[in-house]
Amino acid sequence: MKRAPFVGLAWTVVLGALGAARLQADNATISMSGPTTFKQTDGAALFQAICQGCHMPNAQGAVGAGSYPSLVADEKLDSADFVMSVLLGGLKGMPSVGDMMSDAQVADVVNYVRTHFGNTYPGAVSAADVAAARRQATAR
Ligand code: HEC
What we know:
mainly alpha, two-stranded antiparallel sheet, about 50% helix, binds heme C
């Protein structure tokens, strides 16, 4: 894996540029199977490992050094496409954490946040849906 160090470096630069010190500070507790992938395979575990560092354990968000929106009863989560695009393409202060996950992992965590924290949106996405969204995100 000759390219791995560069991928890791790029990720560090992206996080640094976005001022996402929170995730970096939490890196010690994030368990990864390699330099750029998470090993968790269900939505709850992925949320705990990745998302809650910024969005907080109950997804209520936080305002302090940065502004991390609440995902509780968040109407924007009605659109699975929107959630996938945020994870795969990033959104302003949010890095594209989906780059560090498999299609199945992205699908699991998208489905998890859309059906927890007061969200009850129908229409679970599959790994194939994520693969299609990922092609779109990288084609931009
Ligand atoms: C490094 C911090 C960070 C991490 C990690 C992170 N987010 Fe975010 N997220 C943000 C920030 C900041 C925003 C607000 C972006 C903006 O609109 O300025 C955001 C926005 C979002 C939004 C859009 C919410 C809305 O109503 O506009 C969703 C959905 C979301 N994140 C889901 C997730 C999920 C799911 C994960 C884990 C897989 C995750 N985030 C991990 C920082 C983070």
